[in-house]
Amino acid sequence: MSRTRSLIAAFAASTCLSAPALAQDDTLTIGVLLTLSGPGAVLGEMARDGFLLAAEEIGEMGGMPTRILIVDDEQKPDVAANKAREMVERNGADIVVGPIFSNVAGAIVQPVTQGGAILISPNAGPSNLAGAECNPAFFATSYQNDQMHEVMGAHAQAQGFQNVFLLAPNYQAGQDALAGFRHSYQGNVAGEIFTQMGQLDYSAELAQIAAMQPDAVFAFMPGGMGVNLVRQYRQAGLEGIPFLSAFTVDESTLPAQAEAAVGFFGGSNWAPDLDTPENAAFVAAYEERFGHVPGVYAMQGYDAARLIDGALRQAGGTDRDAMIAALRDAPFTSVRGDFSFGPNHFPIQDFYLTQVVQREDGRFATSIVEKIFDDYQDNYAANCQMN
Hints:
Peripla_BP_I; 14 strands; amino-acid transport; alpha/beta; transport; ABC transporter substrate-binding protein; eight-stranded mixed sheet; Leu-bd; globular
């Protein structure tokens, strides 16, 4: 039995974890809608495993009998919208946790919230939902998409890089990524390319970088895209050009990238070696359970479960208005330490420059180099007017 399946079995023994079915009135129903197949599956799997690990530690969420439905959104917005609607309308989900990808978030926010449930994102943080299209029933335990990239823009500025080449996939989070980098970086952009989602061959882009010889490269390439880009970057002999990124060299990609990523820098709201007691306990429990280093997706899934539990206990049940009020207070201790929600229901938190290292046990991980932003709120909150 796989470690994840054993966790599911252990959790199901004390609560109720099942495929979709009609909910019981006295049971808390949480739908977990994540990408669990295709190139982005590793991200969804980490978020799922982090969420279930916390749920197992908690037992009954908010002291209530709990049923968790785990569903694959297939990284397809139309599929996700239908499954989200079914979760809420047919299965009676009180809360939906998801998704990973921002284009999917745009597809499910209305079916979930208009259906009467609360949506909690353990990853996706698109700019529209942080700003003008903010929603009282939407919360993110992650970040606003721009922020990790703003870290790297600030780092590039501090390093005095005058000419940086930018690279990201062509979808909402990719556009937010480059906007975030530009927000903090005041130098020249040597070139900017939006690649196809799921692209795995970067020979043309790397040839262009080699010809231009910029001071640095900034890339946002999550999942399998990042694995291939980093490998091909090394193979092209470009390691002399500093490689800056977010979600491109992290614990979701490092098992495949290995030595090719060592020394590369990233921006993040967390790393496995962040020094808080809660984080040390989380990382140890996760590694023991799953046999690999947790990534930011796992951490944010873990925190999502802790947040839900704390809010349910404060609200005294699943009344929607009471739950929204409780969620705003963020009544839990994040593994990140300082954590609160801004007026748009996105986190106010610290952000760090990280670097890939090989640990003494041979595993690859990101490690905190320095704090870049303290108690940092996103740049879209001022545009949010909650109804």
